[in-house]
Each structure stands twice: as structure tokens, then as C-alpha cells.
Amino acid sequence: MSKVGDALAGFGVTFKTMFKKPITEQYPEEPGPVAPRYHGRHQLNRYADGLEKCIGCELCAWACPADAIFVEGADNTEGQRFSPGERYGRVYQINYLRCIGCGLCIEACPTRALTMTNDYEMADDNRADLIYGKDKLLAPLTPEMTAPPHEMAPGSTDEDYYRGNITATGLARQRESAQ
Q1: Residue 138, beta-bridge partner list
Q2: What's phi and psi for 128, nearest 5 deg?
Q3: Are 39 and 50 in contact (CB under 8 A)?
Q4: Half-sphere exposure (CA, 13 Å, Cβ side) for 122?
Q5: Which of 60, 152, 153, 157 is least crowded, fewest Cβ atoms below 10 Å from its Cβ?
Q6: What is the fold of 32-171?
Q7: Any binding-site annotation on 37?
Q8: Peptide bond between residue 143 and the one before it cis (omega within 30 degrees of 0)
Q9: How far apart, in whole angstroms, are the C-alpha atoms of residue 18 and residue 25?
Q10: Is 140 annotated as a binding residue?
Q11: Was 102 annotated as part of a binding site?
Q12: Is 28 marked as a binding-site residue?
């Protein structure tokens, strides 16, 4: 008798859903909402004046369990400065064929240069296009930023950058008022 009751309960679920209007998402034309803290595509961030936050330390590559990140650091010179420190990431690549989206690279970054965006549309029909370089990973320049390479803000040190005392036009007013 319990098998007949189980069968009737199953048919009851079927009959309840049979007459409901189906929910159809129009995905490519109308993408659905994304959770605010969703971890999608990576982004290399910049300071307010346009210098890159990545210092080429390769900690993200060491932390990656899937070996999806390749970083090659180089030294900044006075004529060619891409980040406020001594070094910058000359080559930065993430292989999205290998990336598992775990976020360990984000946790390993000492300068918060690498973050994850809400962008989830990374499918492609070509394997080579799923290896993102700095050209695809760097955050876009805003109108008040200057494209690197350029000098650090006058009178600033790399510590001012790491503490967030730099604005798009130079040192923050809080530092000027302290002097």
C-alpha cells in the first residue's frame, strides 16, 4: 500500500506543475542578475593616478592550485615607471582553461592589485582567446588617470600609494593638511 501512496504523491507533484506557466529566461538578450559578491573574471587594478598596483611579486601564481597564472616581473626605471614600487608585472597572464575560480590568488595579493569582477561571460570558440593577458586584465583608465609609464606623484613615496594617500591629481589633501 505504501508504494501506491508514493506513486500518488509523485503524480500529485506532476499535476501541480503541469498547469503552471513556465519561467523562461531570455539569456543572451537579457542577462539575469548577478549576486554582488559573485567571483567572475579577474581584473588588475590601478591607483588613482593610473599607475598599476601589481608589483610583479608572483605570489598569485604561487597560490594558484591550478597553475593558471603566469607572472614575469621587471624593474621600474626612472624613465619607465609602471607601478610605484621597485618592480611591476611586465607579463601577466591568466589561463581560463585552467582557472577554477577559487580566489586564492586574490587572497595572496599584498597590494590588492588582483580582484574578481562580476563578469561571467568568458566562453569562446578558440582556446588561445581564453588566455587573458594584461591588455584584457588591466582596469580601464578613467578620464582623470594618466596612462603609465609616468612618474609618481610629486613628493610621494611608494608607501603613500600603498596607504591610499594618492588621488588622480597627486597627494591627497589629508597629507597636505598634516604638514
Answers
A1: 44
A2: -65, -30
A3: no
A4: 23
A5: 157
A6: Alpha-Beta Plaits (3.30.70)
A7: no
A8: no
A9: 19
A10: no
A11: yes
A12: no
- When computed from its CA atoms, the radius of gyration of the chain, rounded to whole angstroms, is 24
Taking the C-alpha atoms of residue 1 and residue 3, their distance in angstroms, rounded to an integer, is 5
27 is in an annotated binding site: no
Q: Which amino acid is at 107?
A: E
Residue 48 in marked binding region: no
Alpha-carbon distance of 120 to 112, in angstroms, equals 21
Residues whose CB is less than 8 angstroms from the CB of residue 51 and which lie 6 or more positions away in sequence, other chains included: 81, 82, 83, 84, 148, 150, 152, 161
Q: Which of 103, 102, 98 is nearest to 132 (CA)?
A: 98
- The answer to the question of whether 109 is labelled as a binding residue is yes
Q: Is 57 annotated as a binding residue?
A: yes
Query: What pLDDT tens digit does each residue of the chain (179 aa) get?
Result: 578 888 888 888 888 888 888 888 888 898 888 998 899 999 999 999 999 999 999 999 999 999 999 999 999 998 899 999 899 999 999 999 999 999 999 999 999 999 999 999 888 999 999 999 999 999 999 999 999 999 988 888 888 888 888 888 777 754 455 55
3-state helix, strand, coil in the chain (%, to 5): 25, 15, 55
